[in-house]
From TrEMBL:
<keyword id="KW-0472">Membrane</keyword>
<feature type="transmembrane region" description="Helical">
    <location>
        <begin position="339"/>
        <end position="358"/>
    </location>
</feature>
<keyword id="KW-1133">Transmembrane helix</keyword>
<dbReference type="InterPro" id="IPR025405">
    <property type="entry name" value="DUF4131"/>
</dbReference>
<feature type="transmembrane region" description="Helical">
    <location>
        <begin position="31"/>
        <end position="51"/>
    </location>
</feature>
<dbReference type="GO" id="GO:0005886">
    <property type="term" value="C:plasma membrane"/>
</dbReference>
<feature type="transmembrane region" description="Helical">
    <location>
        <begin position="60"/>
        <end position="78"/>
    </location>
</feature>
<dbReference type="InterPro" id="IPR004477">
    <property type="entry name" value="ComEC_N"/>
</dbReference>
<feature type="transmembrane region" description="Helical">
    <location>
        <begin position="428"/>
        <end position="454"/>
    </location>
</feature>
<dbReference type="Pfam" id="PF03772">
    <property type="entry name" value="Competence"/>
</dbReference>
<keyword id="KW-1003">Cell membrane</keyword>
<feature type="transmembrane region" description="Helical">
    <location>
        <begin position="403"/>
        <end position="422"/>
    </location>
</feature>
<feature type="transmembrane region" description="Helical">
    <location>
        <begin position="493"/>
        <end position="511"/>
    </location>
</feature>
<protein>
    <submittedName>
        <fullName>DUF4131 domain-containing protein</fullName>
    </submittedName>
</protein>
<feature type="transmembrane region" description="Helical">
    <location>
        <begin position="217"/>
        <end position="240"/>
    </location>
</feature>
<feature type="domain" description="ComEC/Rec2-related protein">
    <location>
        <begin position="233"/>
        <end position="515"/>
    </location>
</feature>
<dbReference type="InterPro" id="IPR052159">
    <property type="entry name" value="Competence_DNA_uptake"/>
</dbReference>
């Protein structure tokens, strides 16, 4: 510890993350005494460091306690400054609101638009005269709606609204928590055509520019190539067919379609190289100007414009924050890719958005960048010796080794994150990325940027046509790799504690420099085995109590109507890594009986799962029905020798601000009190 005391600062974001995770694992919201206790721990920890700043033990213990408490308090503050989830009407209602964003949704037929409405007012008997919603309401328009929506327009539409969907099984994806922190109230589908109220504002300059760019691209590159080009240059992959998107996902190349750190790094890298080359053409600029810093700032400006053009999505904004820190390091003469810069960026991201720690994008970003920075530290001397030796082939070998190292480290560090959130494993991702990323970095995106510069003069085809050739190679690669044996393996979803073990082991391996860093490999190996060791439920009951699934060997039998709840069945398939198969539900096993109609037999029954609303059950036998799921959400049953174990979604999540009341009811939209 004394030898590595300078690396203790790298563990500050780890402490913040543990405090945030502690808060979100609670079953009940902490009261005022608990919050004051955590604040006291933070003050005492910082005070102990200030009292003995040069001693190692106070720095470790005090700093660890303080960062843990600060993470807990940051999560608590972020939770309680959000407005509550509203209670949306169960019947169709008239919605009037102001459009803040328009999104095109993928569809096999005509494109479908989704509107994000702010200050939405509901016109129904219960909500008439109530104040506007304080959250965003997402309404999907009909495919035949002729309205051309633009941000700022006030629209009125009849829609059927629904709150965020509850977890499909205990421990499953929590869409209500995601919506709570995203500022959304729920969504719905328009039942009629939308009507614009008042004067129609003109499209914003960025929105209009994005549409013009998409139109130019699709005019020159129709088909799949145009869809990929639109995705990387405007952030919208609507033009791609579902088969092509699936091929990218199966080959481990889905990140090439989502504008995030990779695309931003390529755009900024190309911009830096071009500006620095132009400055090097001037003898005066080379001798008297800080060309490296000027090029870095120009690259950051290009990155800001690119993020704005592609819609300023949250992953891109996170990557832009990290890129700004890299540019700051270059301007101030510090190392650009370093673990200290990553620690600063991680602290900023965790304090500004604590709930993002539980989502896949932030976990994948931090894990990948940490693995890249730590790997660069270890392999830097080897690459330096490779450059110093003569021979052009050595430089070529260095570039190939760099690409292979980046694909292996970034992809390997995020494998368990993909397993935990998506329940899949792509064994060929390293090979696919080794070939596709150089094509994207040195061919596709540079030509895409050139096409943007040529569009004002109508000469974009000079760059878009060869760009399409490169996209065609990437498409062929994705289709080929996705067709290989075991290209996409379904694995049981890794529980949260297993993912935490992996991330802590990865931090131990990457953040220390001595030999004891290798102790982190043990927890990482254990975490990879967790999905195979965890006990899976034998029966599942959907949140509405109308669908049940039984694990029958290597399949999951769903009844009574397979396919009626597509979202729930997809979550079940992903969590258990089993294919869905139709099957009858009237059966008994180990004292647990399923039935969809009232029956008289109750002999030997311990637990009854019924889908019949008028089933009276059996005397002295526990029953799971629609009333049970109305109160406590989805149910999971584990068959054990001592009797069945039932776990409900309410047991798993507890009573938290983002957990809706029984019946999936939120807070009524009432007028504010005078104090508020």
């Amino acid at each position: 510890m004394l030898a590595e005391h300078r690396r203790l600062a790298l563990w500050l974001p780890v402490g913040l993350g543990l405090g945030i995770a502690w808060y979100f694992r609670l079953r009940h919201e902490p009261g005022t005494p608990g919050v004051l206790a955590w604040a006291g721990i933070a003050v005492l920890g910082l005070g102990w460091i200030a009292w003995r700043p040069y001693a190692l033990a106070p720095r470790v213990l005090g700093g660890g306690a303080a960062t843990l408490a600060l993470g807990f308090l940051a999560a608590f503050w972020a939770t309680h400054r959000q407005p509550p989830l509203p209670d949306l009407p169960a019947r169709a209602t008239i919605v009037t609101g102001r459009i803040v964003a328009v999104a095109l949704l993928p569809a096999d037929g005509p494109s479908v638009r989704r509107l994000d409405l702010a200050d939405a007012v509901l016109d129904d008997p219960l909500d008439s005269g109530m104040p506007p919603l304080r959250r965003i309401l997402r309404v999907r328009l009909r495919a035949d709606d002729p309205l051309v929506p633009v941000p700022g327009m006030v629209v009125r539409v009849r829609a059927l609204l629904r709150p965020p969907a509850p977890p499909s099984l205990p421990g499953g994806p929590d869409r209500q928590r995601r919506a709570y922190f995203d500022g959304t109230a729920g969504g719905g589908m328009a039942l009629g055509r939308a009507q614009a109220l008042g004067p129609v504002p003109g499209a914003s300059s960025l929105e209009a520019l994005r549409e013009r760019v998409s139109a130019h691209i699709l005019h020159v590159l129709p088909g799949a190539a145009g869809g990929v080009a639109t995705a990387v240059l405007t952030g919208s992959a609507v033009g791609m067919k579902q088969a092509d998107r699936d091929a990218f996902a199966d080959a481990g190349l889905a990140h090439l379609l989502a504008v995030a750190g990779l695309h931003l790094g390529i755009v900024m890298g190309v911009s830096v190289a071009v500006v620095r080359l132009l400055l090097a053409c001037s003898e005066w600029a080379t001798l008297y100007w800080p060309c490296r810093s000027i090029a870095a700032i120009a690259g950051l400006a290009a990155g800001i414009l690119y993020v704005a053009l592609t819609g300023a999505h949250l992953p891109a904004l996170r990557s832009l924050t990290m890129a700004a820190l890299v540019v700051l390091a270059i301007v101030t003469g510090r190392r650009a890719l370093s673990l200290r810069g990553l620690a600063v960026g991680a602290i900023l991201l965790l304090l500004t958005g604590p709930a993002d720690l539980l989502e896949a994008p932030l976990q994948m970003s931090l894990a990948a960048v940490m693995a890249l920075a730590a790997g660069a530290e270890v392999t830097r001397p080897l690459f330096v010796r490779l450059i110093e030796q003569p021979g052009w082939w050595r430089r070529a070998l260095r570039h190939i080794a760099h690409l292979a190292q980046a694909s292996l480290l970034a992809g390997g560090a995020t494998v368990p994150v993909v397993m935990a959130h998506f329940g899949t494993l792509q064994p060929w991702f390293v090979l696919a990325n080794l070939l596709a990323v150089p094509l994207m970095a040195m061919w596709v995106l540079p030509l895409g940027l050139l096409s943007l510069l040529l569009m004002p003069w109508g000469a974009e085809a000079m760059a878009l046509v060869p760009m399409g050739w490169g996209i065609g190679l990437i498409l062929d690669l994705a289709r080929m790799v996705s067709g290989w044996p075991a290209a996409r393996l379904a694995v049981p979803a890794m529980p949260g504690w297993g993912l935490a073990i992996w991330l802590l082991g990865l931090c131990w391996l990457c953040l220390w420099a001595g030999r004891w860093r290798w102790w982190g490999v043990g927890p990482m190996v254990l975490a990879l085995a967790v999905p195979l060791l965890v006990v899976r439920p034998d029966l599942l009951l959907s949140p509405d109590g109308r669908t049940v699934a039984v694990r029958d060997g290597a399949v999951l039998r769903v009844g009574p109507r397979p396919g009626s709840e597509r979202l729930v069945e997809d979550d079940w398939r992903q969590a258990l890594a089993l294919p869905i198969a139709p099957g009858g539900i009237t059966t008994c096993r180990d004292g647990v009986c399923l039935r969809d109609a009232p029956a008289a037999g109750c002999a030997g029954m311990v637990l009854l799962i019924t889908l019949a609303p008028d089933d009276a059950g059996c005397p002295g036998v526990r029953m799971l029905d629609t009333l049970t799921t109305w109160k406590s959400g989805a149910q999971a049953v584990f068959l054990r020798s001592g009797g069945p174990l039932v776990v409900s979604d309410r047991d798993w999540r507890g009573a938290r601000p983002w957990v809706l009341a029984p019946g999936q009811h939120g807070m009524p939209v009432l007028p504010l009190a005078q104090r508020e």
